[in-house]
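Researcher: We are triaging several targets before committing to wet-lab work. For this one, the compound of interest is adenosine-5'-diphosphate. I'm pasting the protein sequence and the ligand SMILES. What I need is the predicted three-dimensional arrangement of the protein with the ligand bound, expressed as structure tokens, so it can go straight into our comparison scripts without reformatting.
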Amino acid sequence: MTSNIHVQFAGVSKSYDGRTLIVDDLNLEIEKGEFLTLLGPSGSGKSTCLMMLAGFEPLSGGDILVDQVSVGYLEPQKRNIGMVFQSYALFPHMSVADNIAFPLKARGRPKAEIREKVAGALGMIQMDHMKDRMPGQLSGGQQQRVALARALVFEPSLVLMDEPLGALDKQLREEMQYEIMHIQKRLGVTVVYVTHDQTEALTMSDRIAVFNGGRIQQLARPEVLYQNPQNAFVASFIGENNSVPGTVLSLKGSECRVRVGTDEIMAHPVGDIAESKPVALSLRPERVVLGSRAQAADNRFDAVVTEVIFHGDHQRVVLDVLGQSGFVVKVPNSAGFEPPEVGKAVSVGWTIKDCHALAPIGGSTA
Amino acid sequence: MKYKQVNPMQKWQRLSGLLTLLVLIFLILPIVIIMPLSLSSGSFLSYPMPGFSMRWYEELLTNYKWTKALQNSAIIGISSAVLAMVIGLMAAIGINAMKKGAARAVVMGLFIAPLMTPLIIMAVSLFLFYSKLGLSGKMLGIIIAHAILGTPFVVVSVFAGLQKFDMTLMRAAKSLGASSWYAYRNVMFPILKPAVVSGLLFAFVTSFDEIIIVLFLAGPDHITLPIRLFEGIRDELTPVVISAAMVMVLISVGSMGLIEWVRRRSEAAKEA
Ligand SMILES: Nc1ncnc2c1ncn2[C@@H]1O[C@H](COP(=O)(O)OP(=O)(O)O)[C@@H](O)[C@H]1O
Ligand SMILES: [Mg+2]
């Protein structure tokens, strides 16, 4: 039976100085043809994981398997893994065509094959007319495309990308996101992608591994990650989020009662939650309703409006509620709804299942 | 009453400019004054010249004493510079890869040491050392000695080039399937070429007008151009000496010009 697992991190750990663990017991299975993103704040160990997979950093513990075979002792040049660097790493003394031909020449492929494949790769990135330019004469986006073509031209089945779009402006970045996605789906290659930009991760990935402190906080499809974050870190890192600290009073099935100051809130418990332990209540701004719409909600509280900002398709309303300030609600600009005025009292509400009771950041309940 | 606007700095700048000019004249004037004598049609090293001719250059290129010296200088200069390039390039890459710290500073210091050692001391110690090795009186001995002198130039120049070299390029090359050697040869070396070439030329020029070590180590067949020049001044004193000097000046100036050209071209390439 052939397995569908392409890459496996098995209990991988990494320390540069022999004391602090940068990657801590990482277990991760990546499927063939999958677009998997490592998402996390800067310094969380994402690049380190990629460098270990590429063969540039030795492991401190565990093993990495590609196609069920350990690659621990394989030199980088023997791994046949395509790689795109944030700095593009194009060879400045070679033309676009020579850059793309490099991996084929290094493998000693025949001239005719090199010519044909380079032409194909140039076509893929629509840069045939620039094949004789030097990298210094290209824009950031063009350099990025050349780097991509160079990493794909030798037909690796696995491609690693470390914040490849980090240096581009917003519009170009979005264009390139779609271009990379389309190329990846067309060629069917497995991509391990690193970014600290959650929007980019949500847009491009089949699955996302959220990293923090060298550990995977949650591994899931983008929509699951967004709607069912497993802990307070994931909730706050992915999308906008109101976080309200509280204490669990009672826990029953898929509902729990949480004390917040003098109020009690019904919430949906997620993960390691226990009675009388601290929790972080997580609420998406677009899942909270105001005014008359709050009448039917499971949880309902009185609030004071402190700020209203117009955002085109929605209004951003900031409230003082539950003894907290800065509680954000997104009110869609739907027909017939009047947003509240600053300084006025308003009632806010939400349903139980939209209010997640999560293990707080750093506070282990285990 | 009108005041004249005086910038006190300006006065100093003019003065230092004047001084610089005087020093330059002092340095160059002797060379400029004797230059025309190499074209004299007479046999004496004095003005006025009886007429112009190329006879002394002809003498230089046909008389065995001079052609042999030119040939020796070329062989020693080129081989020692190439040897210095290979050693210096490898040393610079190795030192650059070392962790910053005392060990690295010591190794770097050892490679730079020949720059600071008095030539006469190197000459004496090599003389004694070579007599044990059986290298004295052999051209190979001179080539090795000059390579030692030239290596620091290559190390310093390549090391400086490496500070600007992006090591990610080597990782990129390996991720694309290049062996270490392939990556060095096709990525690192071509990018370091300007630094390597200028180190090489400095090493060549150093060997080309070095005299003390050659005096100590050379056998009678290994007379180089500077030494031949010295002998010529003592026992011939015809304008052929000046034409030989002119050739030396030309080669030295030419090498320095080449170094500058390589440097400018690599700067320009970076901006493109
Ligand atoms: N070569 C290295 N030597 C020592 N420490 C390193 C090295 N590379 C990364 N680190 C450290 O490891 C941690 C994780 O780095 P990295 O994997 O680059 O994170 P990320 O890519 O998520 O921003 C950081 O604290 C960084 O300082
Ligand atoms: Mg990184």
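Researcher: Any quick observations?
Model: Chain B touches chain A at residues 166, 168-169, 171-180, 182, 186-187, 190-191, 269-272 (CB under 8 Å).
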